[in-house]
Design goal:
This protein is mainly alpha-helical. The protein is built from six helices and two strands, in the order ββαααααα. Strands 1-2 form a two-stranded antiparallel ribbon. Strand 1 and strand 2 form a beta hairpin. It is elongated and about 75 Å long.
């Protein structure tokens, strides 16, 4: 194209008749140039979904049926020797844990893959406030007569939940930052399309209107009052 001219020497001149430059290349946006090409906005094309979180959810989907089957079999074997109090607790916990896990995995898949903050926040809250305390109760309460198979599957489940709580928190933080940047860029675009009137120009116009409304007599009266004082 232009021989002998470096890309860094090219400057955008608004007086020249040319096609409108993209928003990321305009000087007033404050974005930099890189070898003649403007930098892409990270908020538009950055992927904030967590691959480690998605992998843990994938393996958790296959592990949950094994955990559920092992826990139900162990509960059936030790059910006669349990007290009525622990029988009611274990049956209630199994029902609640099964329902919570199905909803939790669904919200985790939807929130992480589609980058939806409400779904991922629901997944994080269910994992931290409900599912993790339930598994820890099943793991450390010796009154439940925990069997070796139960202890093993509960430890693996607790590790899954701990990792997912940490990974989901980090991913949520990145998603919220991305949404905040996108919101600010949209506000900037709206200000470019509909600029706000200048504060000082409004003040000057108001003073001019007020002086015009007073008329010459008001101005002469204020002048004579100043001379008298």
């Amino acid at each position: 194209m232009l021989s002998g001219v470096k890309p860094q020497q090219l400057r955008y001149d608004p007086a020249l008749p040319a096609l409108p430059m993209p928003r990321c290349c305009r000087p007033e946006t404050g974005l930099k140039y890189e070898t003649g090409n403007c930098l892409d906005l990270k908020a538009d094309n950055e992927i904030v979904s967590s691959l480690p979180l998605q992998m843990s959810l994938y393996f958790n989907v296959y592990f949950f049926p094994f955990w559920w089957l092992s826990t139900v079999v162990m509960l059936h074997l030790k059910y006669p020797v349990l007290s009525d109090y622990y029988k009611f607790i274990l049956v209630t916990i199994m029902i609640l844990a099964s329902l919570i896990e199905v909803i939790r995995l669904y919200l985790g898949y939807m929130g992480n893959l589609q980058e939806k903050v409400p779904e991922l926040a629901g997944f994080w809250l269910l994992s931290l406030l409900l599912q993790l305390p339930i598994i820890l109760f099943l793991l450390f309460n010796e009154g439940l007569k925990i069997q070796p198979l139960e202890r093993a599957v509960h430890i693996v489940f607790a590790l899954f939940l701990t990792f997912q709580v940490i990974a989901a928190f980090v991913t949520l933080k990145r998603m919220v930052n991305k949404l905040a940047i996108r919101f600010r860029l949209n506000e900037f675009d709206q200000l470019e399309e509909h600029p706000m009137p200048d504060f000082y120009s409004l003040g000057k116009e108001e003073r001019a209107v007020s002086m015009a409304g007073r008329g010459p007599s008001a101005g002469w009266r204020s002048h004579t009052e100043g001379l008298r004082s």
